[in-house]
Amino acid sequence: MSTVDEQISELKKLTNTSKNTDLSKALGVSPSTIQTWRGRGKIPEDIFIKANQIAKSGSLAPRGYLELKFFDIEVSAGHGALVEKVEESSAMVFSERFIRQELGFNPNNIFLMPVRGDSMSPTLQNQSVVMVNRVDGFTTDGVYVFRYDSRLMVKRLQFLPNGIKVVSDNAAYEPWELSREDIKGADFEIIGEVVWSGQRM
Fold first, then answer.
1. What is the Cα 113 distance to its own chain's centre?
2. With CB atoms counted within 10 Å of each terminal CB, which end of the chain scores lower, N or C?
3. What domains, with CATH codes, occur in the chain?
4. What is the pLDDT along the chain (201 residues), one digit of tens a residue?
């Protein structure tokens, strides 16, 4: 076994991973980078520092910060997009104090997702990232991520006496309604409430 292969095996032990794809995610590098190490016969020193930090703390996040899971899912803010994969991608780091005290949520119930489309503009721009608080249902009007008819969407939901009104913040999109029968009989599930968003300028 080459020295690099031995070092890669050691990195997997430190990060508690078994596959190169899992190792690359843990270290925040692309899978092709690992092949580059093999080609060059050398692994950068900072990679071992990262791996040792993960071994000690279980994460790369500094003290007082948390890694929030980022799910690379097609969340449509347009007409809805079929969910082809629900694959966990790289994590993003946030202050634990910000999530617990400023937002008032349990970090264990929080995850991040990207938004595609312009139907929630100007509230949520295309390519923005939303922070979602997992909920089993909803009791107040607000912006939610939900699945309907095999599509994952982010929309403003409003209570109606006989169901739910689905509203886009972009006036170019017409609101539509889901009756109680639709909710019970269709493929409908509330995933969570959008509690924060970040977007590129």
1. 4
2. C
3. 3-57 (1.10.260), 65-198 (2.10.109.10)
4. 568 889 999 998 888 888 888 888 778 777 888 888 988 888 988 888 888 877 876 665 667 777 787 777 666 666 554 343 444 555 678 888 899 899 999 888 888 888 989 999 999 999 899 999 998 777 789 999 998 887 889 999 999 999 999 999 999 999 999 998 888 877 788 889 999 998 766
